[in-house]
C-alpha cells in the first residue's frame, strides 16, 4: 500500500469535506459505516466558509439556498441540527441596466436592438425587479415595474406578444431562451430583463439556455395557450423574482459547521489538512495516497471541485475562478437600504461587479449584530483577475450600484475571497460533469457535490443524500478500527 506511513481501513473514504462530503459522511456514519473524510483545507465546509469582519462572523461563500427543493430544510430537520432557518427581508433586489433612450416606436418591423442604443458613458439605471415574471419574462409588459426597465417602446413591442402566431415547428425546434424572448417580446425584454436574470440565477447567458429546461411548466403552458404572456400570467408567482430563497441565522457556514459535528458524533472521522494525492482502484475498492499514509476503502466518494477531481481521475478539467469582495462600510446613506437586498448587474453596465448583495439589508440577524450605520456588502467581481482591488475601485462600484456617495475612507474593512475550483457555467459544449462522471465510472469511483449535481445547495445536498443511500445499501460495516 504505502512505504511511508500508517494505513487505515474504511468502508467509505470521502475526498473533499465541503457540504457534499459532509452530507455523505453523516448519512453513512449514522447508518453504521466506517467513514473517513479527507479535506485538504484547514477547515471543512468548502464554499461554506466564514470570516470575521466588523466584529461579526459572516459568510464569505454561499450565503443562501434556493427553496425550489426542500434539500436544506430536510437536512436540518433530519440531522436535528441546532440551526434556525430564516427568510430574507421583503425589500427585494434591483436590476442595474445601462441607461438608454429608446426610439418612440419599437415595433417588430423597425425594432432597435437594445445593445445598439447608445447610453451616456457610465450611466446606470436601477429599478426594482418586476414583481410578476418568470426567468425575466413579464406577465404584464405594461406593468410599471416592467415599463421602467424596458421603456415605452419596449412595452409597445412586448404587448404584441399575445397576438403573435405560434410557429408550427416550435416544440420540435426550440430556440434558445434569448431567441425566444426576442422573437416573442422584443429585444428590450430579451436584453434588459431575460439575459441579466439568466446570468444571475443560472450563471449562464439566455443564449445558452432553453425555456423547457429553465421552467418546464411555463414551456408546456406556452405551447398549450399559444402565448407566452398568457402563460406567464397564469403561472407567475405573486412574489418578487429572487424571493424563493432561504438562509440560516448566523450564516450558511453554520450548516457545514453543525453537520460536521453531527457526522463526527455519529462516528465519522473528518481529517482537515489532509489532501488526497492519488486514488488507485483495486479489485476490492481503492487505495488513497495521503502525505504520510494511506486509506484502503471499499468505496471512494469524490466531492472536490472540478479541477481537483480531474487531477485525481487523470482527466484535465477547466475550473472557473470566482472572486468575491466583502466590505464593511460605515455610511448613513446605506441605512435606508436603497437597493433592497442587492443589485443584479446587466451586461453593458460599466462596473467591475456582476452583482452586489447588501447582506445586512437582506438578513435581519446580521443587521441586529452590527453597529448603527455599519453595513456589510458583497461584490462578485465581473472578472476574477482584475478590478475591485483597491478601496477606491470598490467605492466607485458601490456609488454606481447604490447611488450612495460612499468614499474609500468609509470602507473600514475589505476581505477578498477567491475560489479557483468552482464549477464553470455550462456552455454549449460537453460539461465537466459528463467527462468526470465517465472517468469516475470507469474507475469505480462515486462522484457527488457541485461537480455532479450542478452548483447550488438545493441540488448538491439531495444528490449527496441519494448517493449515500445507494452506498448504504451496498455497504456492510467493517469491524471497528481497534479490531483490525
Ligand atoms: C462566492 C460563492 C457564492 C455562492 N453562493 C451560493 C448561494 O448563495 N446559494 C447556493 O445554493 N450556492 C451558492 N454557491 C455555490 C455553493 O456554495 C456550492 O455549489 C456548494 O457549496 C458546493 O459544495 P461541494 O461540497 O460540492 O464543493 P466544495 O464546497 O467546493 O468542497 C470541495 C472540497 O474539496 C476539497 N478538496 C479539493 N481537493 C482535495 C483533495 N485532493 N483532497 C482533499 N480535499 C480536497 C476542497 O478544499 C473543498 O473543501 C456559491 C459559491 C460561491 C463560490
Question: Care to describe what's here?
Answer:
The protein has 484 residues and is an alpha+beta fold. It has three domains: 7-49 and 251-318 and 426-483, FAD/NAD(P)-binding domain; 93-235, Orthogonal Bundle (protoporphyrinogen ix oxidase, domain 3), CATH 1.10.3110; 320-421, Polyamine Oxidase, Chain A, domain 2, CATH 3.90.660.20. Helices cover 32% and strands 23% of the residues. The chain has 16 helices and 21 strands. The strands form five sheets. Strands 1, 2, 12, 13, 14, 15 and 21 form a seven-stranded mixed β-sheet that branches. The chain has a seven-stranded mixed β-sheet with strand order 8-7-17-18-19-16-20, with helices on both faces. A three-stranded antiparallel β-sheet has the order 5-11-6, with no helix packed on it. Helix 1 (19-30) packs parallel to helix 9 (253-265), helix 4 (177-185) packs antiparallel against helix 5 and helix 7 (216-225) crosses helix 8. Residues 102-121 have low confidence and may be disordered. Bound molecules: flavin-adenine dinucleotide. Residues 15-21, 38-41, 46-48, 61-66, 275-276, 303-305, 308, 322, 324, 419, 422, 449-450, 455-458, 460 line the site of flavin-adenine dinucleotide (FAD). Flavin-adenine dinucleotide binds at residues 15-21, 38-41, 46-48, 61-66, 275-276, 303-305, 308, 322, 324, 419, 422, 449-450, 455-458, 460.
Amino acid at each position: 500500500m504505502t512505504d511511508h506511513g500508517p494505513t487505515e481501513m474504511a468502508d467509505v473514504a470521502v475526498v473533499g469535506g465541503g457540504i457534499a462530503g459532509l452530507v455523505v459522511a453523516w448519512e453513512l456514519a449514522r447508518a453504521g459505516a466506517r467513514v473517513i473524510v479527507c479535506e485538504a483545507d484547514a477547515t471543512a465546509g468548502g464554499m461554506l466558509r466564514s470570516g470575521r469582519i466588523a466584529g461579526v462572523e459572516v459568510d464569505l461563500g454561499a450565503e443562501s439556498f434556493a427553496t425550489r427543493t426542500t434539500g436544506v430544510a430536510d437536512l436540518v430537520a433530519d440531522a436535528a441540527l441546532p440551526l434556525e432557518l430564516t427568510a430574507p427581508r421583503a425589500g427585494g433586489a434591483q436590476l442595474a441596466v445601462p441607461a438608454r433612450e429608446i426610439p418612440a416606436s419599437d415595433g417588430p418591423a423597425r425594432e432597435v436592438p437594445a445593445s445598439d442604443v447608445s447610453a451616456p458613458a457610465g450611466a446606470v439605471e436601477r429599478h426594482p425587479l418586476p414583481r410578476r415574471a418568470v426567468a425575466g419574462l413579464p406577465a404584464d409588459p405594461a406593468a410599471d415595474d416592467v415599463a421602467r426597465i424596458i421603456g415605452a417602446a419596449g412595452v409597445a413591442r412586448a404587448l404584441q406578444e399575445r397576438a403573435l402566431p405560434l410557429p408550427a415547428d416550435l416544440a420540435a425546434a426550440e430556440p434558445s431562451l434569448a431567441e425566444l424572448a426576442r422573437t416573442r417580446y422584443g429585444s428590450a425584454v430579451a436584453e434588459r430583463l431575460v439575459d441579466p436574470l439568466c446570468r444571475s440565477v443560472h450563471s449562464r447567458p439566455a443564449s445558452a439556455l432553453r425555456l423547457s429546461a429553465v421552467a418546464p411548466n411555463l414551456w408546456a403552458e406556452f405551447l398549450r395557450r399559444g402565448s407566452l404572456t398568457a402563460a406567464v400570467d397564469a403561472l407567475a408567482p405573486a412574489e418578487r423574482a429572487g424571493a424563493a430563497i432561504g438562509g440560516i441565522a448566523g450564516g450558511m457556514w453554520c450548516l457545514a459547521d453543525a453537520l460536521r459535528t453531527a457526522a463526527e458524533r455519529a462516528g465519522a472521522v473528518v481529517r482537515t489538512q489532509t489532501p488526497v494525492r492519488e486514488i488507485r482502484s483495486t479489485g476490492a475498492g481503492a487505495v488513497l495516497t495521503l502525505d504520510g499514509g494511506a486509506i484502503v476503502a471499499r468505496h471512494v466518494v469524490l466531492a472536490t471541485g472540478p479541477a481537483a477531481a480531474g487531477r485525481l481521475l487523470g482527466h484535465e478539467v477547466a475550473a472557473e475562478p470566482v472572486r468575491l469582495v466583502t466590505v464593511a462600510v460605515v455610511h448613513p446613506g446605506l441605512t435606508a437600504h436603497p437597493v433592497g437586498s442587492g443589485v443584479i448587474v446587466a451586461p453593458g453596465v460599466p462596473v467591475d461587479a456582476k452583482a452586489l448583495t447588501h447582506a445586512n439589508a437582506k438578513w435581519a440577524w446580521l443587521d441586529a449584530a452590527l453597529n448603527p450605520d455599519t453595513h456589510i456588502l458583497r461584490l462578485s467581481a465581473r472578472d476574477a483577475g482584475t478590478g475591485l482591488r483597491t478601496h477606491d475601485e470598490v467605492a466607485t462600484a458601490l456609488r454606481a450600484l447604490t447611488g450612495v456617495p460612499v468614499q474609500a475612507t468609509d470602507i473600514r474593512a475589505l476581505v477578498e475571497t477567491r475560489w479557483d475550483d468552482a464549477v464553470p457555467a455550462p456552455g454549449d459544449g460537453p460539461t465537466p460533469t459528463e467527462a468526470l462522471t465517465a472517468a469516475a465510472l470507469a474507475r469505480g469511483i462515486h462522484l457527488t457535490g457541485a461537480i455532479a449535481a450542478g452548483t447550488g445547495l438545493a441540488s448538491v445536498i439531495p444528490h449527496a443524500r441519494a448517493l449515500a443511500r445507494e452506498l448504504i445499501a451496498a455497504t456492510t460495516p467493517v469491524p471497528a478500527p481497534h479490531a483490525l
